[in-house]
Design brief:
Blueprint lengths: L1 H20 L1 H29 L1
Helix pairs in contact: 1-2
Length: about 50
Amino acid sequence: MFLRKLFARALLIFAVFYLFTRPVSAADLVNRSVIVLHIAADNVAGFISRLN
């Protein structure tokens, strides 16, 4: 449990550090992540609609 909290806090600190030191790259990473999630959702929806 302690290790999980420590890992989560370290990840959060890294994300904030990355955001402030490289904001353009951080925004690009978020944009690409949203695009990937959108494509995945479209693929899942297409698969489910073809099951009927």
